Amino acid sequence: MSLDAVFDSEEPAFVPYLAAGDPSYEASLEYVGALERGGADVIELGLPFSEPIAEGSTIQSAIVRALQAGMTPERYFEFVEEVDVDVPIVCMTYYNLIFQYGDSEAGPRKFVERAAEVGISGFVVVDLPAEEADPLREACDEFGLDLIFIVAPTTTDDRLDSMRERVSGYVYVQARTGVTGAREDVSDQTAETLERISDWDVPKAVGFGIKTGEHAERIVRAGADGVIVGSALVDIVAEGHERDEPVAETAEKLEAKARELKTGALRGVGAAVESE
Amino acid sequence: MSTDEPADGSFGQYGGQYVPEVLMPAIEELADAYRRYVLDNEDGFMDEFRERLADFGGRPIPLQRADRLSERYDTEVYLKREDLLHGGAHKLNNALGQVLLAKYMGKDRIIAETGAGQHGTATAMAAAYLDMPCEIYMGETDIARQRPNVFRMRINGAEVNPVTVGRGTLKEAISETMRDWATNVEDTHYVIGSIVGPHPFPSMVRDFQSVISEEAREQIQAKAGRLPDSVVACAGGGSNTMGAFHHFVSDEDVDLFAVEAGGSSLTVDEEEGVAPNSASLSTGNEGVLHGARTKLLQDGDGQIMESHSVSAGLDYSGVGPELAHLVDEGRVTPVNVDDDAALEAFHRLSQDEGIIPALETAHAFAFLEEHPERVGDLTIVNVSGRGDKDLETVIEETAKRDLDVAPDMSVFEQVGAGRLGSRGDRE
């Protein structure tokens, strides 16, 4: 399924994130499946990079666990082929892994070609601003993949124009300044950022700091087309790993958390309809 | 100041701005400030910088003839004594420039990363001098092996935040500082410590450090009546290297040698993901790290390798993009020497010239020892910093080896065993 098809529906999209291979390849396969059962519409699947400079401690630790368990770009592609879900998968990573794949002389093309082969729908590349993204954008166009950019509260109007020209699939609205990590509250910066890009013709999905169904509801009510949640889910994986919990038990918790977030997002639409 | 280089901060295919979106406005703001204040001297910024560098830093710094080395190698050896700069290393040139720039930009908090502690110390000193709050990120491994500098930072009023992820060296400290910056970008300036990172850092740090070659070029002409045949400088990230080279780059007859840390071996341990060296110019390949496209120590998948050097200040998996470009162009020659040779050079310089060099600097002298025939009849070696901070490491590392030039170390053995176990445990 393409990203377009997901966001064409009336429902807000629930977009969970997990690091592939955290804490092990097999467990991670189960966890991704649990997210779909809990209502995921798109899954952002992290390809771990050794220097994740934009991540807070939660996702940073997930990346370390996945790398220690042997995750590599090639294993990641095998993982995507093997994972048993029917929703689109977006690869979230850092540019060096894309740049290096196969042969750096070829730039990002080989990575995108392989991603297309295994059925990946698009990319979020955390350290690739729009200005440096043309080679990847061209490769994505060639193989029909989407390239998602992150809009931050600090993003200037000039930079918004530059992103708008290159973005496809959805735009990732960073809910607040900082690095990733679940927070007790969601930011007021969100509505302001959504307003600034309200006339863009791509869906707007909001992430960073969203932890509960109530957060998801408020984000959708603020005008988001989708809700992205990473750290709150990765926390469940980390706790399961630390407590040596059976994989099935952690998977159930993930499914329940996913359902809470998806249901919250749906309530957000209801509230918006009621208020009109 | 410079430059006729592209405004986007590219050096050939290297450089650029590969950072999370949340940092892009800060980078653009900094690029604008760099253009206005550093390149165009708006509001007399560069005049104030130079005045403060003279009064607080002690510039100009002497270019000294090294008599014993000149005799030993049968070539004229001159030393650019950056170890005499306030704080004991070239790092103050950049730290003072950036902290002052942060003030001009209206920022009210300084953060920095440090490996050997020299940059952290220089930043803490500059921040104290210019009355700015300052926090320094430093890997726990480096904290253990560079304790004197940790104390110096604390004494100057800076907070020192230990970084415990990874191997706890400079690479991890840079990543952690970038996270802080991403969180506090509106009021905070990140004083990056070398010619690495996204544009404008590589150009800006180079410009602040280029006072080294600006002075050296004038001084050698006054003393020797001509330009040198070569300039030799050690290279980690590359700030003292480019500082020493910059005003000689267009002098095609001057050979420029960037001496990297060959560590214990140039062979990579793929299994462990460790390069037992920090020789990214000599052995690395192109990639993207910490905001720039440059030469890196990385595995076949693009994961960044842990580096190694006996010198904490050289222990980094990347190198400045301008240096990578100049190497590709054939203008700069990358060479490397191993830990043993650097330690020998440390002792030799201390005994022959009465100068205790930083272990970083000792690498440059080790190259001179190994290849005196390559530097021509007249060479300048950049003494990037003094070695007080390295004494505990030198005691420990010398005790492990049978070095021809070392003093009798038996008196230190008990001290070494008692105090310095943490680094030994890691190896």
Folded structure, characterized:
The complex is a heterodimer of chains A (276) and B (427). In chain A, strand 8, helix 10 and strand 9 form a beta-alpha-beta unit. In chain A, 49% of the residues lie in helices and 13% in strands. Chain A is built from twelve helices and nine strands. Chain A has one domain: Aldolase class I (TIM Barrel), CATH 3.20.20. Chain A is of the alpha/beta class. Chain A is globular. In chain B, strands 3-4-14-9-10-13 form a six-stranded mixed β-sheet, sandwiched between helices. Chain B has a four-stranded antiparallel β-sheet with strand order 1-2-12-11. Chain B is globular. Chain B starts with 9 loop residues before the first strand and ends with a helix. The relative contact order of chain B is 0.15. Chain B is built from 18 helices and 14 strands. In chain B, helix 5 links the parallel strand 5 and strand 6. Chain B folds into two domains: 149 residues, Rossmann fold; 216 residues, Rossmann fold (3-Layer(aba) Sandwich), CATH 3.40.50.1100. Chains A and B meet through helix 3, helix 5 and strand 6 of A and strand 2, helix 1, helix 8 and strand 11 of B.
Q: Helix and strand layout, with pairings?
A:
The complex is a heterodimer of chains A (276) and B (427).
Chain A: H1 3-8, E1 13-19, H2 25-37, E2 43-46, H3 57-68, H4 73-82, E3 89-93, H5 95-100, H6 109-118, E4 122-125, H7 134-143, E5 146-148, E6 150-151, H8 157-166, E7 171-174, H9 189-196, E8 204-207, H10 213-221, E9 226-229, H11 231-242, H12 247-275
Parallel strand pairs in A: 1-2, 1-9, 2-3, 3-4, 4-5, 6-7, 7-8, 8-9
Helix pairs in contact in A: 2-12, 3-11, 6-7, 10-12, 11-12
Chain B: E1 10-11, E2 14-18, H1 24-39, H2 45-57, E3 63-65, H3 67-73, E4 76-81, H4 91-104, E5 109-114, H5 118-129, E6 134-139, H6 140-145, H7 147-155, E7 159-163, H8 170-183, E8 188-190, H9 201-209, H10 211-224, E9 230-234, H11 239-245, E10 255-263, H12 280-283, E11 285-289, E12 291-296, H13 321-328, E13 332-338, H14 339-353, H15 359-370, E14 378-383, H16 391-399, H17 413-419, H18 421-426
Parallel strand pairs in B: 4-14, 5-6, 5-8, 6-7, 9-10, 9-14, 10-13
Antiparallel strand pairs in B: 1-2, 2-12, 3-4, 11-12
Protein name (chain A): Tryptophan synthase alpha chain
Function (chain A): The alpha subunit is responsible for the aldol cleavage of indoleglycerol phosphate to indole and glyceraldehyde 3-phosphate.
Family (chain A): Belongs to the TrpA family.
